[in-house]
Design a protein that fits this description.
This protein is α/β, with parallel strands linked by helices. The protein has one domain. Helices cover 34% and strands 16% of the residues. It has 9 helices and 8 strands. The protein has a 6-stranded mixed sheet. About 19% of the residues have low confidence.
Length: 259
């Protein structure tokens, strides 16, 4: 009897020992996702033999001289030539300048482009300028255009981007002004845009002598606007706007080539 009890106790002990053993943990699977948050700027290579623009790569007039020094360009001025319509393609180039940490000291527009320049001075946001003029659709009345743009002379005058109102004489002489009635000046430029397009305008260093900036970008839509060949250290850079719309990447490459 004692032997039988011993055997029973032994089997009970073995059974309890097996049931109390710790179960193995289930193997855990970890998936790691690598996220590269660093922005990469891809600059396309430029074929020097390319003729995708009137003046070759960069749309730079060959008459425009390059700066002889290697100074870093921190400040620029912008002059927007007249166009047959309110063409805001130039705002993409302005965005490229801002992305390169270049400060815009002043802006001026010729003809109808004076309204585009005024809106940039007021908002300091190129994309907002494009949106404002997109909403204008095909309005032609100068009064309606100024009202719809909600241009405010006081805000423009207080802007960190100095605004120069322009007038073009019969002989093509251009004058940059900081005084006068901005709204009336804008209306006059819009109404006389066709006459301004018909004039042959040449911007000289004397014209921009009072406009402070290391480099002045002159964006021209029509061939009636040119930059004087007699420049001091190539301060002015003329960019002839193409008929087709380039990608933003290509526009930024053009800006980098001229900084």
């Amino acid at each position: 009897m004692n032997k039988l009890n011993f055997i029973l106790i032994f089997f009970v002990f073995v059974f309890l020992s097996n049931t109390c053993q710790k179960q193995p943990e289930e193997e855990q699977r970890v998936v790691t996702i690598s996220v590269d948050a660093e922005e990469t700027n891809i600059i396309p290579s430029v074929d020097e033999q390319s003729s995708y623009t009137e003046y070759g790569p960069g749309q730079v007039n060959p008459n425009t001289q390059a700066l002889q020094t290697s100074e870093k360009i921190n400040t620029v001025g912008i002059i927007i030539g007249a166009s047959s319509d309110f063409d805001t393609d130039v705002m993409d180039y302005v965005s490229c300048l801002l992305k390169n940490d270049v400060k815009i000291n002043f802006v001026a527009g010729i003809g109808s482009s004076s309204a585009i320049a005024a809106m940039l001075a007021q908002t300091k946001k190129p994309e907002l300028v494009k949106w404002k003029f997109f909403r204008l659709k095909e309005r032609t009345n100068a009064q309606e255009i100024v009202e719809n743009l909600e241009l405010d002379a006081r805000t423009i005058k207080k802007s960190s981007i100095a605004y120069y109102l322009t007038t073009v004489g019969v002989n093509g002489n251009i004058t940059f002004m900081t005084k006068g009635n901005i709204v009336e000046g804008l209306k006059n430029n819009i109404e006389n845009n066709k006459k301004i397009l018909a004039a042959q305008i040449e911007i000289t260093n004397e014209d921009i002598a009072r406009l402070i900036a290391q480099r002045v970008f002159v964006f021209s839509y029509e061939k009636n606007l040119s930059v004087s060949k007699n420049q001091i250290n190539g301060k002015m850079i003329q960019i002839n706007m193409p008929k087709q719309n380039f990608s933003l990447m290509k526009k930024c490459e053009i800006i980098k080539e001229n900084l």
